[in-house]
Amino acid sequence: MKKFKIISILIVMMVFIGIRCSEDFLTPKPLSFYAPENTFVDANGLNAALIACLRNARHEMYGDTPPFISEGIFSDIAVEGTTDKTGVHMDMPAQILPNENMDYSDRTKLGRYWTEAYNRIKYANVVINRIDVAKWKSEAERNNVLGKAYFHRANVYYRLVNQYGDVPFILTEIMEPKLDFYTCTRESILRKIKKDLEFAALWVYTDAQGCPIGDINNAAVNHLLTKVNLSLGEFDDAIASANAVINDGVHSLMTTRFGSYKDDPTHDVIWDLHQEENKALAENKERIWLFVCSETLTEDGASEKLTVMRQAVPYWGGAGKNKTPTGQTGTTDQPLGAKVGGKAVEIDLVAKYGRGIGRFRPSPYSQFDVWDDPNDKRHLYPNWITMENLVYNNPVLKSLGDPYYNKPLQKYDATGGILCTDTIRSWYNWPHYKLFVIDPTNPMPQGGNGDWYAFRLAETYLLRAEAYCWKGDLTNAAADVNKVRNRAGCASYTPAQINIGTILDERNRELYYEEPRKTELTRIAYIYAMTGITCYNGKTYSLANFSTDNFWYDRIIEKNKFYRDQVKAPFYNYRIAEWIVLWPVPTAAISANSLGHINQNLGYPGAETNITPMKWVDGAGEGSIVAQ
Predict the structure, then answer these.
(1) With CB atoms 3.0 to 4.6 Å apart as the test, which of 316, 358, 588, 590 could cross-link to 425 if both were Cys?
(2) pLDDT value of residue 3
């Protein structure tokens, strides 16, 4: 329970995160004392706390088994693919329980969404609470810092209310032990963070005003505000906040070659956009908010690697996983020159594709069903890799004179017999252009010290398309979706082809392993339930029975064959359930809150003790949380 940090007192040490470039805002500035009264006295001191927010936000994507895995496997696009161990999340109704360990080694880090969220809220609240204690050069400087603090708090709560629903809403700095938290309504939390983001949109600096790469800029504020506006069903406001990004004169979709590969005719702009060394370039106008990482940093996980290849590339080189038609072990993930069976590797596939373990395993929908245009650059070689693009590289094959050495992998032999012994983990296709991040320190690379998009303009277009779609303006919705599709070489959709399902399809094609898919599906499920708009599947939904009948579940069953067919893995069958649209609040958080009451989500043990949640009301300051 000590990990439940919403009761802890912040004593800030100067924070340290940095990037490879020379941006000064991430350079540590030692102070004489670390006490809050000596630290939070000016813009530099308060920015230190906000840099801690940036650091903790990055933790979602970095390190082994990052929390982000859960956003994919609780959705239509992917499942947990590591079939060699128990404890991984496959049988969701049996495993997703309030008292289960959700932060467990290389099995799951889902639980960090709760603990890390309240850490970031703590840092943001310190800045908000002390904003007028510090000395400022101008009102603009003050409000820029305050606006960034509002952004960080809002970003965390946006995720929490679409992961857990109603949650404790903390608007003040906690300066002494506190055990009387109460659950607050999702809708009122969204109302408050919208208000805060609208303030931030007026004051947070733009890139043109000198906002450093990696820090929160005005476009990031409006991008998040668009998601909040959508969540509230305020679609005209969502269009307006998306317009503020799309029409800001700074950002644009990248449609021409740029960066390190721009003169290489074997690649295209899709490849350029996602190469690690290109993401922070000034010429990259599509970047809105970038997680930055540096190999020179060692403090508090700042140098954790972006292990995207380990997580999302198949375990293609596992011993015996992919056999030749002659029955021999066909592949090895050992590097060039390494000995396998006493023979040196001559065909180095691991340097070319990375060493994956198949943890983030795409559904057949992500691999095949979603691709509706044969000219889509995102689904063509060398951006998209199929298992048949790999060759049998086990050097023992060469010594045996095996005719399949250096020939493309095959899934079946001539009689139709399967040659891959684990088709869940070791045989699937993937977006190489997005997942390949070099690591010169590792001869078997899994992903290095790379930057990663947090927000990108392509998503802003798709968010605006969604807002138009909810309003029934399918002409404008189609135009925005087509901006993204046309850049990838796809034919345009007609307005008649547009619905929320086709927008979700385009999000999958464009934002695979970027968007928090579970969060966005749950957000959309709430919109359907809140508005009563008829879904493309012919159903209508209601908030009254959200935990037993919702779009999130129906979309997963519609698109993700693993859950729909309850596919059998070595230790579990894949299963999902309607109530898992919201994750369980950890039992430890509820139990330790001895003087208050935190509700449990319906469908989980403990929900029978729920009480009416509190509600934020406008007009009474930061701490205006009242009983309904």
Answers:
(1) 358
(2) 34
